[in-house]
Amino acid sequence: MGMQWLILCAVVIVGTVLSRGVFIAPTNLINILRQSADVGVLAVGQTLAIMVAGIDLSVGSLLALSSVVAATLMRDGHGIVAPMLIAVTTCLLFGGITGLSTGFARIPPFISTLAMMGIARGAAYTYARGQPVYNLPKEFLAVGRGSIGPIPVQVVVWLVIVLAVLILLERSRWGRYILMVGGNEEASRLAGVNVGRVKLLVFAVSGLTAGVAGIIVTSRLNMGAPFLGMFMELDSITAVVLGGTSLNGGEGSVLGTVAGVILLGMMNNLMNILNVNPFFQQAVKGAIMLAAVYLNITRRRTVVQ
Amino acid sequence: MQRIASAWGMWILLLGFMVLGTVLSPVFLTHINIANILRQASIFVILATAETLVLISGNIDLSLGSVVAFSSVTFALTATYGIPQALLITLAGTTLMGLTGGLLVTYGRIPPFIATLGTMGIARSLAMTLANGQPVYGVPASYAVVGEGFWGPIPIPAAIAAVIFLVGLFLLTQTALGRHVYAIGGEEEVARLSGINVGLTKLLVYILCGLFTGVAGLIYTGRITVGMPEGGVGYEMDAIASCVIGGIHIFGGRGSLWGTLVGALILTLIGNIMNLLDISPYLQYAVKGAVILLAVLLWSRGIQKGYRR
Fold it and tell me: Is 0.85 exceeded by the ipTM?
């Protein structure tokens, strides 16, 4: 447990005082978790991308793609499960293309994912003909609005994905490969790790999590739309960095990212309670991200010294 | 493949696209369409010139599109004080944006694509906040001349773009600053050891980038005559695509501004031909993304060897 949990406690205390207790109410805390679930799911994939010393700028666009694919198929009466699977698989494949171009064609990740950011956004707009998609089946709303006991369904989905990736990282050789490649790509290549395949896996998983996040957002809004997810890559990167994962790759933790996501969610929630202009909130978040990266870098530098 | 993608190859490719346009659409070669292409290209050329400076120095700037919106909104809001004052305030504002990105990169030592991802969010958010999320009316109708006017047979925005391009070309090829930019992009440590003030040079590059982007925003505002807080989305991608098509080395140190010019023109032609053929504008995002990937792949044989994270 690192720094981020201490900051989390500090934010809870400050938030409770500033909002005169509204902040700490159980319904509000559940609400924070509910609203964090989409970024939380995105950030899991982003954590892996950053761990291999990469970055994934395409997650926001992939979220939109997943949203319009799922929503259109559901509206046209193809059931619920099949559209969700198709949407998530589509994003998995798009992520796989990024993985191929980064892992095998060796295009640097910030260029290949920037390109994919455009490609996926364009695909989403084209598929939906630029319009939001309404008239989704009622049963589908359970994903974004339902609860299991006191816990919202989307939070359960987030937890499941976190657990799955934790197992991948801690219990499989792929987890070690990911950290090795992020730590020293050339050394891991010489040690016989198939670096291309590791990156393919990482970006495919990041596509998959973006797809799942798209389903969550679509259900929550009861609408699919090609303009969703703009700037969410920013949020997910912020959460990962707040969670203590190094931008240089080779180290980091998914649980830290969970703390980062909750931290970000609490700050959003607090800004809403305190009536901060919603347009200005993005600037605050940008500043928080830059501060987090700066601290992340300087702390590492002092550790090295 | 690399030989095909040489500088002359790019001019031939440009010619090829012009022939393609002429064959596919009867209106392609009309005076109106050519003026339209030049007007459209002027914003791309300015942004791509700005991005070229940054890329050659081994950095990147993702905030261009947001800064265009910021420039547009700032100008529209201050236009009531008179046009010259508004121009000054706007360019000062965007220069400050560039400076912020530069400071984060040089003295904050934040990786450039993260730092400018941050300023991208901040500039967009400031534009939205200042404009309260709405288009800002208040740009005088006479200002449209900047976007739509002619100077003899030449559209005024194209003339402005030509000036910016020539300034960029002069800086890169004829001045010490230009040589320092190439040196830093080639091998930063060597540049430092040979006595170049690396921090200051990078800072200047980002300041110029902010200034040029501000000019692009002013032309953009002249074309639509409102301050548009949601404008310019994805323009940084067009700028990077222009550079990459034109053979600017994405890890810095190599590339010519002439290549960028051709890249920007090719990209404009692709957009124009798609419009003339009535292909969905939404698909253009995807095509541009694919063009970036293809261009990097074609140019990348040499780049791979130089690739370190």
Answer: no
CB pairs under 8 A between A and B: 147
Closest by CA position to B237, among listed A65, A93, A57: A57
Distance CA B114, CA B117 (A): 5
Residue B309 has pLDDT above 80, yes or no: no
Cβ separation A114–B240 shorter than 8 A: yes
Reported confidence tier of residue B300, pLDDT bands at 50, 70, 90 = low
This prediction's pTM: 0.86
Which long-range contacts (C-beta less than 8 Å, at least 24 apart) are formed by B197-203?
B198/B106, B199/B106, B199/B107, B201/B57, B201/B177, B202/B57, B202/B59, B202/B102, B202/B105, B202/B106, B203/B99, B203/B102, B203/B103, B203/B106
Residue A104 touches chain B, beta carbons under 8 Å: no
Nearest-neighbour CA in chain A from B5: distance (Å): 17
What is chain B's mean pLDDT, rounded? 89
Give A2's pLDDT tier (boundaries 50, 70, 90).
low
What phi and psi values does residue A184 have, to the nearest 5 degrees? -155, 100
Name which of B110, B128, B283 is nearest A297 (Cβ-Cβ): B110
Query: In A, which residues are within 8 Å of B292 by CB distance?
Result: 111, 114-115, 118
pLDDT of residue B306: 43
- Which residue of B lies nearest to A103 if distances are taken between CA atoms? B304
